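Lesson 9: reading folded outputs for more than one chain in a single document. The general rule is that every protein is listed as its sequence immediately followed by its structure tokens, and records are never interleaved. Here is the first one.
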Amino acid sequence: MKLTWNRMTVHPRHRFTTAHWGVDETEVVIVRLEHDGVVGLGEIVPSDLYGQSVAASEAALESMSTLLGDDPFAIDPIVQRLIEHHDDQRAAISGVDAALYDWVGRRLEVPVWKLLGLARPRKQTTFTIGIADLSEIRVKVDEALAAGFDALKVKVGIEHDHETLSIIRDAFDGPLLLDANEAWEPDEAPEKIQALARYRPTMIEQPLKKEDWRHLAALRSLGVAPIFADEACERPADVARLHGYVDGVNIKFTKCGGIREALRMISTARTLGMQVMLGCFVSSSLAIAPPLSVASLVDLADLDGHLLLADDPFTGIEREGGIISLGDTPGLGVAPRD
């Protein structure tokens, strides 16, 4: 197998901001896996939240090239080897994992979702409203509603949360997911969350720093909304650790390492009676297609990374209002727009 890659920069339509950081552009790595005349593609979306970077991902890919073997169908043992050698670079593993599944699907001429024995992906996604001044919030909400999105995810954790949420609730009465991105301390979070009840949140995501996960159970007991873990839940073992402390987990491929590891996390969560959400970072459709391929297995999807872009360099994911879907195209179902 031949593994090559190149950097690509994608640009969100509006600056994307959370309680701790903001981006005007995101640099990703496009992975190409070639074997027997067939090419599979994957996208790496590194995050410094997890000690990842484009440079570290590329360095890991150099080493991964020697670990692939000569059988692209052997995805499970390949990914296991990658984890054993590069456990700290799960974003890079996710890109290779995606390229392997894409290769197999293209080689067998079936979409990845069908290869996995799953239903055709057709899932409601939230559209994320990042932190911004109030005039920009109005613009973002108007754009989202005009585009037909019927579930919104809002970044919170700053002083003008209530002004932001009031503007949104004045215009929108549907599902509203709130993401605090570790914004609060354990002693202030109960009051913060109780004050959010008036906005009827569908769920509240990662209100505390990931190291404060033991305090999440107290926030869950408030009954304001289901509490989901994001930054506190990276790998399959984290799902079991969080059982009883949260209602659900947000699985992102950048954190866990791709389809193979995500399926393990979903299975564990379901066994323990926990809800599951699929999340993403700002990225192209190529990075969204793998989680969308397994989206029929989860409760909630926040797979709007490509929808936040000014110009998505890949095509293949269909959207009708707030519903995104994949068709019968072999592999991951996406291709370069050019």
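And here is the second record, again sequence then tokens.
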Amino acid sequence: MTARIIDGRKIAQQIKDEVRLGVEKLRATAGIQPGLATVLVGDHPASQVYIRMKARACEEIGIRSTTILIEKNSSTEEVLRQIEQLNRDDQTDGILVQLPLPSHIDEGLLLQAVDPQKDVDGFHPVSLGNLLAGRECFVPCTPAGIMEILKKEGIPLKGKRAVMLGRSNIVGKPTAILLMHQHATVTICHSRTENLPRVTSEGDILVVAIGRPAMVTEEFVKPGAVVIDVGVNRLSDLAEIKRIFGDDPLRLAEHQKKGYTLVGDVHQARVQEVASALTPVPGGVGPMTIAMLLKNTLIAARRRRGDG
């Protein structure tokens, strides 16, 4: 068996096309252009890349995007004041606090400070509580993207065994809840789970978000399972790249050009010999995160203006 590689970029483009039409309709019928504001504290390189990608995506579909740059040594109170200004700004429909934050900043306070009506990242306790209860809410973007992949690929969930490897508030826990809402029987496990490969190999669907490069190999996977790889790890060590990818000329060329290559939490070459379908890294879940952020921003604009 060789797994079918799921094209996350294609699915993300479908979502963005749908959002573009929604934005155009909102502007035509109500004269409203949805607005998204990102708060960036410091100069984390990966965050800067993500924000540039988000800004380009917003521009492509007609969402107004602004980035609030705040000095790394600013206090939690200074960032809170900026968030409060965005809460009051009627032209801002969605607020995103870019993570990770500098260690001296109180992440919990910032996430709680965002108006739940503008919480397009889905990290506010109100959003997470509503998610747990099965009520209408903003769903965190990466879990929402995972569920959209499963839906678009026609992968059945009702009555299936699903295993979530990873227990973060951002991905693991929300994804497990969403899978339960679709009537899957869900197991959450993590790096300290005993006999981990035995547990993960029980899953008809295996979602991996554990933050360890190529950790999941064929013994972790049930034959015929669908594997969703959420991990994005930047590898710069050439020996480690060769251990995972062998002499793959594309990976070696990328390392030579950029000084690194990206790898998921799943060892794709080994797992695709066992799984029935697999998301790649890059090009799998990653593009879906931004697509679902755009969708949440459109939803926020509609709800705030009484248009759905």
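What the second record shows: The longest strand covers residues 35-41.
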